[in-house]
Structures are given as C-alpha cells and as structure tokens.
C-alpha cells in the first residue's frame, strides 16, 4: 500500500529548470584564461533528478545543490497531503 501512496513522487521531484550555469566549470575555465558568458552552452549543465523507491523508502538524487531545498519542500507538500512526513532522523543531504 505504501508503494501505491508514493505514486506521483517522480513528477514532484523534477527540477524547476532544465539547464543552468555550471559555476564550477565556469570558474575552472576562467582560471585557464577562457571567458564565456552565461548563455554559452559550454558552461551550462543539464539539471537531472532521479528517484529510487523501495517499499516506503525512497532516495532522491540530483546534480544541483540549489534544487535540494526546493525539491524537499515539494516532497514535504506531496507527503503532507497523504498524511505522511519525512523522517528527519533518517534523512540527509550529501554531495
């Protein structure tokens, strides 16, 4: 039953934007003497988010730290509507 309750979670965790400037790459290229403006595709990255579900547990993986709190808020709202909440003791963010 828990697995059914989490149906739709994949849609909730989708990133708010598709691409953004990869600041780490931009800084690295700048240190090598290469300057690119923010619209250049060379310094942009695709934001990706995935969900792994097993019974009533799930793992959310994203490649953008700025998206983490936004995704967490949307997941909290998603779970709250279903009478559930994130177990803070079992939850963590890591890079």
| Main β-sheet, spatial strand arrangement | 1-2
Give the CA-based shape.
elongated
- Measured by DSSP, the beta-strand proportion falls in 15-25%
Number of domains: 1
- Count all strands and give the number: 4
**Order of helix and strand elements from N to C terminus:** HHEHEEEH
Could you describe the 3D structure shown?
- This protein has a two-stranded antiparallel sheet. Strands 3-4 form a two-stranded antiparallel sheet.
- The chain is elongated, with a radius of gyration of 17 Å.
- Helices cover 34% and strands 19% of the residues.
- The protein is of the alpha+beta class.
- It has helices at 2-5, 9-12, 23-31, 67-81; strands spanning 19-21, 44-46, 49-54, 57-62.
- The protein has four helices and four strands; from the N terminus they run ααβαβββα.
Strand-helix topology:
Layout: H1 2-5, H2 9-12, E1 19-21, H3 23-31, E2 44-46, E3 49-54, E4 57-62, H4 67-81
Antiparallel strand pairs: 1-2, 3-4
How would you briefly describe this protein structure?
The protein has 4 helices and 4 strands. The protein has 95 residues and is an alpha+beta fold.
Keywords:
95 residues, alpha+beta, 4 helices, 4 strands, 34% helix
């Amino acid at each position: 039953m828990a697995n059914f309750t989490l149906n739709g979670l994949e849609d909730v965790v989708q990133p708010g934007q598709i691409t953004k400037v990869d600041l780490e790459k931009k800084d690295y290229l700048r240190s090598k003497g290469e300057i690119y403006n923010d619209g250049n595709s060379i310094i942009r990255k695709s934001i990706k988010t995935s969900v792994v579900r097993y019974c009533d547990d799930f793992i959310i993986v994203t490649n953008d730290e700025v998206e983490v709190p936004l995704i967490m808020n949307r997941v909290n709202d998603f779970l709250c509507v279903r009478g559930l909440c994130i177990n803070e003791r079992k939850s963590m963010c890591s890079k």
